[in-house]
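ok so for the tutorial part 2 we go from a plain amino acid sequence to predicted structure tokens. step 1 is just haveing the sequence, like this:
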Amino acid sequence: MTVMLGAATAIVALMMLFAWLPEIREPGLLLRRWSRGSDGHCSAGIRQAVDDVISGFVTEHRLPEVDTSRLREMKSRPAMMPVTLLLHPQLVKRGNGRFVRGRNLTAVMAATGISALILPPLAGMALHDVSLSLLPLLNMVVFFTGVQLVRQTYSDLSLINVLVTGKPD
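step 2 — the prediction. this is what the tokens look like for a chain of 169 residues:
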């Protein structure tokens, strides 16, 4: 049982790490900082990084030029930019002119749920065996990062659907 729960913890931790890689890399960090503290004016390097991330999202979803121009116009309002979806375009898919939850977002939600389910037994095992104490902590980190990613994705999903369709959800 311990081996199975330890393996499940390792698998969901690696899965969440791969889901968070775009946030950890340089363009993600730069885009987050730009969206929080900027008034729309920025250096040429930051502008290029923002354009590259937007181009990646547009390419991933094959957006028409009208929707692409709406998304590019958001650069003047960085606080309203859907940063999570731009960094993680694989979390959503386009269906019937709207963006909906994709397979990767479902996988992140499943990993978050699995980490919540295996946390109590692992915490009980860690009470009796100190060498297992890292596993419940790792599960808590996976759970909270998963919840944060899902929360930010759904927030950006409603924003980008309003931006693309012009109608609220």
